[in-house]
Design a protein that fits this description.
It is built from 5 helices and 7 strands. By secondary structure, the chain is an alpha/beta fold. The chain has a 7-stranded mixed sheet. Helix 3 links the parallel strand 1 and strand 2.
Length: 174
């Protein structure tokens, strides 16, 4: 998928709505331990930062509210994290685009660490201008189990996120 189209779309149009999601929104505040270090991949407006402060590092290729304006593939970590928050950011392009990003996300996490996901099952249902130029990757519950196993993780939980049309997944790195 064209990085410029994606970054322009999310930099100019997208807005978060954590209230809409039962599991992959504000409920994550209760899942993360007080001692966890956190990487928020595709942090957008970096809304969790005020809750996790210096324990969290938010990266985003398009939103200047990020701690670091960078995409996951260009990100150069200085440590491994206990937790990754991935709320809709690894959802764009084909499997050839998304799978290396998944592998990189897992590589950022310590063994025993957790990855919390919100995944789009391929729906181009955003209400903003330019959505027709975005290729949404078709995540599935089955694919979570396949890729988690392939990249050294186990799926702790994987289900539809409440009344929404997104998948909530929790992986643990083995």
């Amino acid at each position: 998928m064209d990085k410029d189209i994606r970054d322009r779309y999310f930099g100019n149009n997208w807005n978060p709505n954590y209230d809409h999601y039962t599991y992959s929104g504000w409920a994550l505040l209760d899942k993360v331990k007080e001692t966890d270090s956190i990487i928020d991949i595709g942090c957008g407006f970096n809304l969790f930062k005020e809750h996790w402060n210096e324990r969290m590092w938010g990266i985003d290729p398009a939103n200047t509210k990020a701690d670091e304006l960078v995409g996951i593939m260009e990100f150069k970590p200085t440590k491994e994290y206990d937790v990754a928050i991935i709320l809709g950011s690894l959802n764009f392009g084909t499997a050839e685009d998304v799978e290396p990003q998944v592998e990189k996300a897992v590589s950022l996490i310590k063994p025993g660490g957790r990855l919390y996901w919100r995944q789009n099952p391929g729906l181009g249902d955003h209400p903003w201008k330019g959505v027709d130029e975005i290729v949404f990757f078709p995540w599935s519950i089955e694919l979570n189990y396949s890729w988690a196993d392939k990249y050294g993780c186990k799926v702790i939980e994987c289900k539809w996120d409440g009344d929404s049309d997104r998948i909530y997944a929790e992986w643990q790195k083995i």
